[in-house]
Amino acid sequence: MVFEKYKLWKQKAVADIDLVKELEIMSEEDINDAFYKDLEFGTAGLRGVIGAGTNRMNIYTVGKATQGLAAYVNSITENGTVAIAYDSRIKSDTFAKYTAEILAANGVKVYIYKELAPVPMLSFAVRHLKCDAGVVITASHNPAKYNGYKAYGPDGSQLSPEASDYVLDIMNKVDIFDGVKRMDFDTALAEGKIEYISEEVIESYLAEVEKCRINPQLDLSQLNVIYSPLHGSGNKPVREILKRIGVTNLTVVTEQEEPDGNFPTAPYPNPEIKEAFACALELAKTVKPDILFATDPDCDRVGIAVPCGDDYRLFTGNEVGVLLLEYILKCKKQNSTLPKNPVGVKTIVTTEICKKIASDYGCEMRDVLTGFKFIGEQIALLEKDGEADRYILGFEESYGYLSRGYVRDKDAVNASMLICEMTAYYKAQGKDLITVLNDIYEKYGYCLCVQKSFACEGQSGMAKIKGIMSGLRTDTPKEICGIAVGEYKDYKASLCVNFETGKEEVINLPKADVLSFGLLDGSTIIVRPSGTEPKIKIYVNAVGATEAEANKKREDLLESGSALLGF
Q1: Rounded Cα distance, 454 and 462, in Å
Q2: Mean pLDDT of 107-119
Q3: Whether 336 is catalytic
Q4: Residue 249 has pLDDT above 90, yes or no
Q5: Cα separation of 197 and 112, whole Å?
Q6: Could you tell me if 47 and 139 are in contact, meaning their C-beta atoms sit under 8 angstroms apart?
Q7: What domains appear along the chain, each with residue ranges and CATH number?
Q8: What is the pLDDT of residue 160?
Q9: How far apart are CA 342 and CA 363, in angstroms?
């Protein structure tokens, strides 16, 4: 079957010369990996290695997904509309144009950005233009060989499971070569079936971001900042918003300023890792910034580093989230702008210290599954009840943040602005962010987190991940690192078991392939397969009376947890 698919592609996949060349030189191993399955379409859309095959990102897999999306839009409305954005990745512009051509041929009006634009700007465009769906071509922070196709619903959140299932059902019936309708882009543009997104939409987005300021009277002219867009889509909007709030002393990392899908200076363009900051840290030796930060290629996530003696310390996504939560709550309370019964939202794998901070300010902290769409759902529920102003911040440990509900995905333009404002606020008090974070830990206790991913590539990797999760469910550990497991949660079974009392409760969240082990000392270990990459992840949340104790426990739990997974 695999070789039959390969022969069919050699015969029919002729519209992209790069694919033609690749098909000619494929080894047997290459063929098997490229054709043993179809690239899966889920609530996160598509994501995969760029290249030839049913398990790859190319114009044909993109076309099949878009034919399914067009059918979905046409099933819910007449004269439907879709917004499209794309980032700097290899073939992102090609895939975006191809998507527009297919939608237009299927009677769906398309609004598309003229140039690369961040994920949050796509979410905003969907809502602002009242579109029925949206698409952004990106693979976020993955290496250069990857690209992806993220689909959005009319609320600006990623497509719902029901809508994704509909698209997938259509995709399964569509002939990848002969079942996709398509028309010429320029013809569709001339006929008004495709329209470029206007500057008015971009301006409206930036205006909404600026409204998110916590202390708009604060002077940021003395703040010294280094910024890197990591060759991605954040360059223009981030610089513009910082200019508007008064950050005049901004240095952009020249080597990473221009869009480049090969990511020559950051092979893994992920603001979570130090390697992505190499150019910025070199520049910092002469610029001496108060803060330096980087946004990933689709500009929905941001990472930061701050001076620490003669070096710079990179903050985790959890640490930045904790700082932002405490800053927003404290300043809103001081400014008398804190809403009654405020609400914060975090994912289940995000640090638990947030709940202690929130409690101090009378703020409800809601837990949701991993994925920012679930944070978006909470914003929508508040909005439905006429309580949208209660929402103050949503964030996840993977460096994604959003204050206010003008978009329904994480927004690094928003977060970059707030981080700079927060840094300036504390600088005016003679404090840096390390000092502020340590003050928080001293007050609420040390709660230190770490996440580790284990790559499991290809067909064998998928089988290995399934085996690990099945094994943990069949032979559930009652002790980890010498600490008894007090609470076991299986989100796939919607089951929470207290091992001390034997009491079982239902977890009122959507089913997900996630396992959580709550230890009796308050620490937790969570295991979940990645929804977008061939990886299995472990999240450790270690608590301790002192920093040294929490650090030691974090390392011990990570080692024990890794061994539990067989790594």
Answers
A1: 12
A2: 98
A3: no
A4: yes
A5: 5
A6: yes
A7: 2-197 (3.40.120.10), 199-444 (3.40.120.10), 446-565 (3.30.310.50)
A8: 87
A9: 5
Output the 3-class SS for 446-477: EEEEEEEEEECCHHHHHHHHHHHHHHHHHCCC
Question: Radius of gyration of the chain from Cα atoms?
Answer: 24
Residue 313 identity (one-letter amino acid): R
Question: CA 10 to CA 8: how far, in whole Å?
Answer: 5
Tokens standing for residue 394:
């949503």
Interior angle at CA 27, CA 25 and CA 30, nearest 5:
105
pLDDT digits (tens, 9 = 90+) for 182-206: 999 999 999 999 999 999 999 999 9
| pLDDT tens digits, one per residue of 460-475 | 888 899 999 999 999 9
Closest CA to 214 of 245, 189, 191, 239: 245
Are 230 and 296 contacting, i.e. CB atoms less than 8 angstroms apart?
A: yes
pLDDT at 534: 81
Return the structure tokens found at 483: 């600490």
The band of 532, judged by pLDDT with boundaries at 50, 70 and 90, is: low
Q: Which two tokens stand for residue 366?
A: 């809601």
CA distance linking residue 540 with residue 61, whole number of Å: 37
Percent of the chain with pLDDT over 90: 92
CB contact at 8 A, 417 and 242: yes
- Full-model pTM: 0.93
Q: State how far the Cα of 205 lies from the Cα of 122, in Å rounded to an integer.
A: 10
The mean pLDDT value for 303-322 works out to 95
**Residue with structure tokens 């039959």?**
4
Considering the candidates 88, 123, 140, 164, report the single residue annotated as catalytic: 140
